[in-house]
Write a structure and sequence with these properties.
Blueprint (H helix, E strand, L loop, with lengths): L5 E5 L2 E4 L14 H4 L9 E3 L22 E3 L20 E5 L6 E3 L9 E5 L7 E3 L8 E3 L11 E2 L3 E5 L5 H7 L12 E5 L5 E4 L1 E5 L2 E7 L9 E4 L2 E5 L7 E12 L5 E3 L2 E6 L4 E5 L5 E3 L5 E8 L10 E7 L8 E12 L10 H4 L13 E3 L2 E4 L8 H9 L4 H9 L20
Parallel strand pairs: 1-3, 3-4, 4-5, 5-7, 6-8, 7-9, 8-10, 21-27
Antiparallel strand pairs: 1-2, 10-11, 11-14, 12-13, 12-22, 14-15, 15-23, 16-25, 17-24, 18-23, 18-25, 19-22, 20-21, 20-24, 26-27
InterPro entries: LRR_dom_sf (IPR032675)
Length: 422
């Protein structure tokens, strides 16, 4: 057998795709005793549907130095087995239909590792953490596998209950006196999974913090307000550097409906010819007939926004069959660096790579315009299946390939948290 050997492991044993006559022993329940039978020249291994738990795996796969592909699909693992991290030539990891998976921490960060696959119908995944020196990934995941609240895919999206957010973080955002949220302790949210109840959350993605609640009370420090779905303003002069912009809007149902399809937020710096169009992580929220208030903080730190710049912000409803709404009011406030705070409490958030001021190359639609939406980072597993099936038209294949953004969680720029790479 040579270095091109590929093996499939299942309840009947292990066989080589290159030589179907090579049949080894049936897999024991504990994989640690089985691995001694694997050839060192193995490049692809499938352990699909073997009832393997995380504890079933050996401490390392060091002797499988040629292994490039590992398929752990349909196993009851709850976290990434440690042995996966020790593979020096690893390229592809698949954990499709691992319905008990709750965390994937520090997958391999070798230069060869390029493809990571998740897919599950159970919302159990809460944490995906990457090594700072990870290589850019083709990342495929089904959003239905994320827990309803309190989860993080590092560098992509983070949610946590508002009550658990540190006070110093809220102060850095300029979010003060949010006690009015206490009588709105629950909000029912949905992605693609149907209705689910959770506490009021803070969401973070693309360098944008946000929270959503029922009611029509903007924070009283949102002083620059306009009726309707848009606002234009000139950033006021200040001796201090602008670090962020708070934007808030209130919507009411246009019809008798409990649901809101979250609109697009478009911020345009007319002076600098820069535009960001943001589609929130959530698609729909249910608020029991109340108005919807969305408060957001946009971090700016690379001169994207400066004093005297002319800016417009517009809310655009997405075209949906029902659940339409009208924007009653919107408003802004500004956050400046006062020069007094020694600790950068937002340092971790600034270390993410795909944020405003970071690497948004794959999100640029035209010169100076960026479309910030999760589907640009994560392609559903079905896209990969279709792309590899050979059944797509040339145009269909081109469209899927055009959507590809190679994901890298953390930036190599100094942020106070992540040091520059080599």
């Amino acid at each position: 057998m040579d270095s091109t050997e590929k093996f499939k492991a299942n309840s009947t044993g292990v066989n080589t795709k290159m030589d179907s006559s090579a049949i080894l022993e049936v897999i024991p329940s504990d994989l640690r005793f089985f691995t001694v039978s694997l050839p060192r020249s193995l490049v692809s291994l499938s352990l699909k549907d073997n009832s393997l738990s995380t504890e079933s795996f050996p401490m390392d796969f060091n002797y499988l130095s040629m292994l490039k592909e590992l398929y752990l699909d349909e196993n009851p693992i709850v976290s990434l087995p440690n042995c996966v991290r020790s593979l020096p030539r690893f390229e592809t990891l698949s954990m499709v239909k691992c319905n008990m998976l709750t965390s994937v921490e520090h997958p391999p960060h070798t230069p060869t590792f390029m493809k990571l696959y998740f897919d599950s119908k159970r919302p159990s995944l809460r944490k995906v953490i990457f090594h700072p020196q990870m290589s850019p990934l083709d990342f495929f995941m089904d959003w239905k596998m994320l827990a309803p609240s309190s989860f993080e895919i590092e560098g992509m999206v983070k949610t946590q209950p508002m009550e658990s957010v540190e006070e110093k973080v809220l102060c850095s955002l300029g979010w003060t006196k949010l006690d009015s949220h206490n009588d709105r302790c629950l909000v029912t949210c949905t992605g693609y999974r149907g209705r689910e109840e959770c506490e009021i959350q803070m969401y973070y993605e693309f360098g944008i913090f946000s929270t959503i609640y029922g009611g029509q009370e903007m924070p009283n420090w949102i002083t620059d307000r306009r009726t309707g779905p848009s606002i234009s303003f000139t950033i006021p002069s200040s001796p201090n550097k602008l670090t962020g912009l708070n934007f808030c809007f209130v919507q009411m149902p246009l019809f008798v409906s409990e649901s809101f399809y979250l609109p697009l937020i478009k911020i345009s710096n007319i002076t600098k010819n820069l535009t960001w169009i943001y589609q929130h992580y959530l698609d729909v929220v249910y608020l029991g007939g109340k108005c919807l208030t969305l408060l957001s903080h946009w971090m700016f730190g690379s001169n994207e926004m400066e004093c005297s710049d002319h800016v417009t912000i517009t809310i655009t409803q997405r075209k949906v069959p029902d659940g339409d709404a009208v924007t009653k009011e919107c408003g802004v406030s500004f956050v400046y660096d006062d020069g007094e705070e020694e600790e950068d409490v937002l340092g971790y958030y600034k270390s993410w790579n795909h944020i405003i001021g970071g690497d948004l190359t794959g999100f640029q639609s035209t010169t100076g315009e960026y479309i910030l939406k999760k589907s640009r980072i994560l392609r559903p597993y079905v896209d990969t299946y279709l792309l590899n099936s050979g059944n797509l038209s040339e145009e269909g294949a081109r469209l899927i390939k055009d959507k590809r953004v190679y994901f890298k969680a953390l930036s190599q720029r100094k942020s106070g948290v992540v040091e520059d790479g080599p």
